[in-house]
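Protein modeling request. Please complete all fields; requests missing the sequence field cannot be processed.
Requester role: graduate student
Desired output: 3D structure, token encoding
Chains: 1
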Amino acid sequence: MRVMAQMGMVMNLDKCIGCHTCSVTCKQAWTNRAGTEYVWFNNVETRPGQGYPRRYEDQERWHGGWVLNKRGSWCSKPAAG
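Delivered output (81 residues):
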């Protein structure tokens, strides 16, 4: 089978609880035709820490979102004012 396209997903890993529902849903959506039954899915583990993330909806801590800093890494928005 000739590869026509590749798919990817971007997710907020601060909300990830490690249930792999995203992987199962993706596999069910994209392996429904002949020749795709054995598509390989990359299993990405998030580190450090385990369990449900805390304070991911705390707007006082994150100031409403994220920005790309001068070094090229993501950080929380500076407080307005």
